[in-house]
Amino acid sequence: AEEFDQRVYEGRELLDQAVGDAPWLAPLLYYRAEWRYEYEGDPDGAFVDLTAAAKTQPQFVEARLALATMLMARNRTGDAEREIAEALRAVPDLSAARLLHGRLLYYAGKTKEALEEIELAWRLSPGDLSMRRAAKRLKNAVSGPIWTASESVESAHYRIVAEVPAAASKTERERIAKGV
Q: How many CB atoms lie within 10 A of CB 155?
């Protein structure tokens, strides 16, 4: 455990140095955001780095989607919508962006639009099984029971955690807490 802690500390030092040497490289900010979130439990620091990455390189969709996910968790759905729109403007056929947009629409009560986005995400990623499973869970949530808050989707570059935004109704939050 102590050796792991030392490596985490050294890794963060290297990331900080790299960001200091090349602050214009958005992927470095993105990787440091992941580091802060995963290893340090620092969502606020991760949020700062993701915001900077999105501003530094507007076409960097992974940072935009991760930022949108954090914005949704903070109930800043308008800002999340803008980040998703920018990601889709850069890569219109990105299934992860379509899926996240479907989730946002679902929590906004726009069921028909949510289903359209989910189905498009499904069609765009025929070989990505984790994305297809996530789309299926979300589609089932739109038309049936909702998934538990602990489920998540992982892709090669980022993780979209299926957190329940504060905008979810009290009934939805209760169902999720009970695992129904």
A: 17
